[in-house]
Amino acid sequence: MKGPTGMNDVERAPGPYAAPRVGAGIRTSLVRWAPVAVIAIAAVGIWEAVVALEDIPNWKLPAPSAIADALWGDRGDLARHTWVTLKEVLIGFGIALGAGLLLATLIHMSRTMERVIYPPAIASQTLPIIVIAPLLLAWVGYGLQHKVVVVALISFFPILVNTVDGLRSTDGDLLNLMRALGANRWQMFIKAQVPHGLPYMFSGIKIAVTASVIGAVVGEWVGSSEGLGYLALRSKSQFLTERVYAAIFLLGVMGVVLFLAAGLAQRVLVPWHGRQRGGPNT
Fold first, then answer.
1. Helical spans, DSSP H, in 59-171
2. What contacts 103, CB < 8 A, 6 or more positions away?
3. Residue span of the structural domain in which 41 resides
4. Which of 105, 189, 209, 267 is the most exposed place for a label (fewest CB within 10 A)?
5. Residues 105 and 221 sit within 8 Å (Cβ to Cβ)
6. Which one of 5, 31, 55 terminates a domain?
7. Both 228 and 268 in a single domain?
8. 23: helix, coil or strand?
9. How many domains does the chain have?
10. Measured distance CA(259)–CA(266) in Å, rounded
11. What is the pLDDT of residue 16?
């Protein structure tokens, strides 16, 4: 039905989930992130000024400009070592994700499996990884393997715990209704418990994917000939502090990008979660 303007009433009505205008969305993002950008620029400026005014040597505290020079001047080495660390992170995190989801499913389905799996899983998190890493080096060798295992050990626990909590927090009334309608346990798991547990799972993934960067660095410190952790350690012994900061900067960027990628995956795979919280702008 057309109104006075010749447009359909449905077309004119914005609706609760109408697509926002692109320009308005960009302006909103700029306003939201402008304070962060201002604070970051101010912090970098103060840092640069303090180093210059106090005449602090590079080996003690490099200026941001010196770090930027290192990022550009050593871009070839930094890119190669960044790829090595990223590969360790992605492989180790992939193993942790698969293991965490499988163990969470077993724990949720069986109280016996919970008693079997949970105590060793908790115990694995109480052991200092810096102590375990040298043992892994002796067990699995000097190559990529021990760093991947360290990443997996650090990353799987948040995924496991959050997924189990999500599966078990499904509304009991909904499960009772499905049971009354004749649904079996597998149908309730797939159609109710898994969708309800996905936001919890992604919360664990966000924690795990950032912690996996730490795991890769620890593994490289213990024994490696490449990777950003190795490069930072070698540069420190050579008093190339600006290159140490450049490696740290790239590790931070890697963690942020992986976290944002996990958030994007959540928005794509669990779109209803954002709407339940009031949408992405809240």
1. 64-73, 75-109, 111-126, 129-140, 144-168
2. 117, 121, 156, 160
3. 21-55
4. 267
5. no
6. 55
7. yes
8. helix
9. 2
10. 11
11. 46
Is residue 28 located within the same domain as residue 108? no
What is the per-residue DSSP string for 24-64?
HHHHHHHHHHHHHHHHHHHHHHHHHHHHHHHT--TTTS--H
**Beta bridge pairs of residue 227:** none
Q: Exposed, middle or buried by CB within 10 Å (0-12, 13-18, 19+), for 69?
A: middle
Residue 269 forms part of a structural domain: yes
Domain of residue 185, CATH code? 1.10.3720.10
Is residue 21 very low, low, confident or very high in pLDDT (cuts 50, 70, 90)?
Answer: low
- Residue 78 and residue 164 share a domain: yes
Which position has the higher pLDDT, 192 or 95?
95
Which residues touch 280 (CB under 8 Å, ≥6 apart)? Answer: 267, 274
The pLDDT confidence band at residue 106, using thresholds 50, 70 and 90, is very high
* 64-73 and 22-54 helices, crossing angle to 10°: 110
In-domain check, residue 1: no
Residues in the chain: 282
Residue range 57-66: mean pLDDT, rounded: 88
Domain-terminating residue out of 34, 55, 76: 55
Domain shared by 97 and 187, yes or no? yes
Whether residue 218 has pLDDT greater than 70:
yes
